[in-house]
Amino acid sequence: MLYRFVKIVSAVVSILPHHIRRSIGKILGVICWQIVPRRRKNMAIKNIMISLSIDQSQAASIAKRSTTRFGTMFLEELCLPKINKDNIENYVQLEGQEYLTEALSYGKGAILATSHSGNWELLGAALAIHGFPLVCVAQKQTNVQMDRLINEYRITTGMQIIYKTGVRDMIKLLGEGKVIGILMDQDANRDGVMVNFFGRLASTAQGAAALGRLKDAPIVPVFMTENSDGTHTGILHPPIWVEKTSNREQDILGMTQQLTTIIEQHIRQYPHEWFWLHNRWKNTPPIN
Q: What confidence score (pLDDT) does residue 287 get?
């Protein structure tokens, strides 16, 4: 029932003029901010204040913008089935796609290291539509119908989907020359490595570095940012490789820190586009 309902909403949203869709999205975003629990808002504001060294008023404004943007993002994702190679330029411009082309030229596949900044779903769609063999490493949704719908929409753009538990699949797909997209900016609990993020230690997913080292595959940091007119720009960085020494743990730690620093630099430039409502420093060791 939910699947069919969202499909109907998607069909309606897809035929709306761009400016009307954005206006509705902004309204949905405001509603989203209103229903966020006060505890979560306070956590986000506090983390912004500490990370960016700004006052509470400025931090609250960033936290609100970071949350309200999900309204337009949601409607953009409902429009994914209408986006194709003939109209993708009307939605997303890619800067630095030659870096990913270069990375793939070595015949080792490639790893995309990205974050929950900007519309990351639309970023993946744009790369796939441009012909890059992208594999999205997804988090399985608790609602089966929504999981089916989200993955169906991803697949329509040319993406291949595997879940986070499919490590062997990632290794195999890299060997086949695929591009593995990994979001690495959320708290990784006990599975992560502790690296510096905005001046504090944060448990960070080591998958990108571990895969890169194992398969000698290049890693390309990539991000998405929204332009003032509602279009988007995908920003790709030059490929980097994990140093491979006799100390595997240090190699992975070093690369994870390097990638995290690149992510931090992007967030500092576009702080209102990052997902501050996530408790990124949940497992940060207490200060003695």
A: 59
